[in-house]
Amino acid sequence: MRRLPLRKRVLFFGYYGEQYSGSPKYISRYMMENGLGERVIWAFTRPKKHAAYEGKSVRYGSLRFCYYLSTSAVIITNYRMTQEFIKRKGQTYIQTWHSSLRLKMIEKDAEDTLPAHYLAMAKQDSPQIDYLLAGCKKSREIFERAFWYDGKIVNCGTPQCDILFEGRTPLLEKVRAHYGIPTGSRIALYAPTFRKNGDMSVYQLPFAEIADTLGEKFGGEWYVLARLHPHLSARTDCIQYSDRVLQATDYDDVQELLCAADVLLSDYSAIMFDFSVTRRPCFLYAPDRVAYTTEDRKLYFDMSDLPFSCAETVEDLLGDIASFSQEAYGQKIAAFLDGIGSYDDGHAAERVYELIREKIE
């Protein structure tokens, strides 16, 4: 197949074919909205699961996938390519990564905590990349130091954040309809990261009490969407659900949930940085902060320097919600985005398209 001619098309996949989401989705969406849908191909492990995608797709890992991987002029993904991939001469490989910025140290900065097989994959993958996308100046600095990469880093912003600059109402209505949440009710998204030690107890919060506290502070009836990290998709039963606490791990695109959320609850997840461009409230709950930073992963920021409050007990989390000041928070968010040199303005996907335009038109 590698002997066949390259074709003017773009092969997309996210999280090794598991999701229709992330920056690859929003780059492909831009192409489809601008009359280039025939150039777009998505690879999914379960194509029928992703009904939201209406274009051409292929099963990830199939023989047909190998054909498109070998003959597409452009390949765009958000995780490391496996070691079976060898880029052809003339192909363009764009690595979007999967966040605008990150709290947890990555790649070379976390080399002593990463498994040997991943390090081998990463070191083979990096030299094949043609464009690595940076969401902010701080992110670019991390990539330059830690990614085993000396190629082109594009200061374009984060395509998956483009949607957060658009009108919120259609996606809010979509998410409410999906979960049966009444019109006028408000949504808190709980989206923590995973733990290397597999501890699930940290995710067992009193969500009903949190929802009541949010109602007392901000008004309205609140629902909590609990979305665990993709690594924990088989462990969703660790949370006690109810009429107002709903399982959202299976929802394909977390960016749509961020659009719908009035409040974000998280811990060490990079999702906080995507959400920050909305200026809506974000609260961190990290009861294992000392253990996590000493045994799991070191951090790029002291959590006390972030614009988000960080609680280590439920009582403190409830207190942070009750004492929240939008004015003070807004000032902190503005200073933080300025400090990291954010490139996000809602036009990142358009900039990526311009990089590959001559390859596919």
Brief description of this entry?
The chain has helices at 22-33, 63-71, 116-125, 137-146, 169-179, 207-218, 254-260, 271-275, 289-296, 314-322, 326-340, 348-360, and strands at residues 7-13, 40-44, 56-59, 72-77, 92-95, 131-133, 152-154, 186-190, 222-226, 245-247, 263-266, 282-285, 309-311. It is of the alpha/beta class and 361 residues long. The longest helix is centred in the C-terminal third of the chain and has 15 residues, at 326-340.
Fill in the keyword field for this structure.
Rossmann fold; 361 residues; single chain; 13 strands; 16% strand; seven-stranded parallel sheet; alpha/beta; 12 helices; globular; six-stranded parallel sheet
CATH class membership of the largest domain: Alpha Beta
CATH superfamily grouping of the largest domain: CDP-glycerol glycerophosphotransferase, C-terminal domain
Question: What is the helical fraction, as a range of percent?
Answer: 25-40%
Write down the oligomeric state. single chain
> What about the largest sheet?
7 strands, parallel
**CATH topology (fold) name of the largest domain:** Rossmann fold
Q: Which strand order do you get reading across the main beta sheet?
A: 3-2-1-4-5-6-7
Please tell me what the overall shape is: globular
Set down the secondary structure blueprint.
Elements: E1 7-13, H1 22-33, E2 40-44, E3 56-59, H2 63-71, E4 72-77, E5 92-95, H3 116-125, E6 131-133, H4 137-146, E7 152-154, H5 169-179, E8 186-190, H6 207-218, E9 222-226, E10 245-247, H7 254-260, E11 263-266, H8 271-275, E12 282-285, H9 289-296, E13 309-311, H10 314-322, H11 326-340, H12 348-360
Parallel strand pairs: 1-2, 1-4, 2-3, 4-5, 5-6, 6-7, 8-9, 8-11, 9-10, 11-12, 12-13
Helix pairs in contact: 1-12, 5-7, 6-10
